[in-house]
Amino acid sequence: MESILKKYFGYSTFREYQKEVIVKIIERRDCLVVMATGSGKSLCYQVPPLVMGRTGIVVSPLISLMQDQVMTLKQRGVRAEYLGSAQTDTSVQTKAENGQFDILYMTPEKACAIPNSFWSKLLKIGISLFAVDEAHCISEWGHNFRVEYKQLDKLRDILLDVPFVGLTATATEKVRIDIMSSLKMKDPYVAVGSFDRKNLFYGVKSFNRGQLFIEELVREISKFVTSVGSTIIYCTTIKDVEQIFKSLREAGIKVGIYHGQMDNKARQESHRLFIRDELHVMVATIAFGMGIDKPNIRQVIHYGCPKSLESYYQESGRCGRDGIASVCWLYYTRSDFAKAEFYCGETQTEIQRRAVMESLMAAQHYCLVTTCRRQFLLGHFGEKSSDAGCGLAFTLDTILIEMLSILKI
After folding, report:
1. Keyword annotations for this protein (predicted)?
2. Which of 113, 171, 265, 389 has the fewest CB atoms within 10 Å of its CB?
3. What distances in angstroms separate CA 263 from CA 234, 252, 258, 267, 268, one per listed residue?
């Protein structure tokens, strides 16, 4: 395992829980992996296929995310490919049936629709694992529930001796139980890492919407756009995205924009420029960010209260992945708390409605709480911790000074 880790991924040692999970998968045991953003969950399903010499199947929710991961793996010398609506190479499925790939990604829709003959052929050659990434999407209690994920359990009766692996960065105890039940896991090995990102400072401020506040925000962001690192600003509406993007651009800041109404080519270009540090700031809806592996994001700002604490934790967790001090600000208005009926209108079942309401209430409580917000976040995910580091009088300027000191700028 260590030689595979070094050869393909360039690491000398495993991080916490990685090796234990990999060993269990090789022993053909089901696993549930709940580890914070940036903790290296993907290695848990990328290493076993290379060790065992059998194809690993990975279900992923976004085609763009699969494409990025496949490209990265190919650059490392791993035989990887994906199946989904955007795949134009008609030979991929045939090659997959013949076991020509180490790792094969597919959308949940494709996994459920692919004929049984495909699985039969691949099973004869050998499947090392069936991994479900972003596994919280399975649960109606999760913050990104997707019906297609809920249908993956029917593959359990086809892939009888294949270990199922669920992976997520954000799952409460209720969601974890739902994932294990939905995937029909048998005596799974459960690895739950710490949710405490010690290098991140969490701050919350109330504000009044309008151009005056945006101008103030632009001045604050300007402090970060030298050589310190990148900033992501998440907005709850496309209108806010466009307004803040325009103000930052007019201030001479190298800024990108990303939302669901842009065409794929424009979104991909924004993503590419941001990853390559040609843009210092990205203003986006929550459509941006899943799977981003950019270590030098120094600041994540939420312009408006998010719809759930789980999504907030995941989005803010894209900050400071290199371990250097970084800051997460959440700006909210009281009007943000009046969106419950709008969010519930998107639900289909009573369970989903209750889940949305509970998630929104938790996010609102996080905005209003007067005690340590780090403690509040950890408690939400069922983790206990000491109060070390809480209640310190950090400001944007002190965080900046600390980062400049560490970076020796």
Report:
1. ATP-binding, Helicase, Hydrolase, Nucleotide-binding, Nucleus
2. 265
3. 19, 25, 10, 6, 9
> 3-state SS string over 183-239?
CCCCCCEEEECCCCCCCEEEEEEECCCCHHHHHHHHHHHHCCCCCCCEEEEEECCHH
Cα gap 357→252, rounded to integer Å: 40
* pLDDT tens figures, 132-184: 999 998 987 766 778 888 899 999 999 999 999 999 988 888 899 999 999 99
pLDDT band for position 401 (50/70/90)?
very low
Domains of the chain: 2-192 (3.40.50.300), 200-407 (3.40.50.300)
* Residue 250 identity (one-letter amino acid): E
Q: How many Cα atoms within 13 Å fall on the side-chain side of residue 93? A: 16
Q: Outline where DSSP puts E strands in 244-398.
A: 255-258, 281-284, 297-303, 326-332
Distance CA 105, CA 371 (A): 43
SS3 364: helix
Tokens standing for residue 39: 């903790």
Rounded Cα distance between 45 and 18, Å, is 9
Contact 221, 231 (CB under 8 A): yes
Q: Running DSSP on this structure, what letter comes out for residue 168?
A: E
Is the pLDDT at 348 greater than 70, yes or no? no
pTM as predicted: 0.82
- Own/partner pairs, 21-26, CB within 8 angstroms, 24+ separation: 21/165, 21/189, 21/191, 22/47, 22/48, 22/51, 24/163, 24/189, 25/128, 25/129, 25/163, 25/165, 26/51, 26/52, 26/128
Does 408 have pLDDT greater than 50? no
**Are the CB atoms for 170 and 313 separated by under 8 Å?**
yes
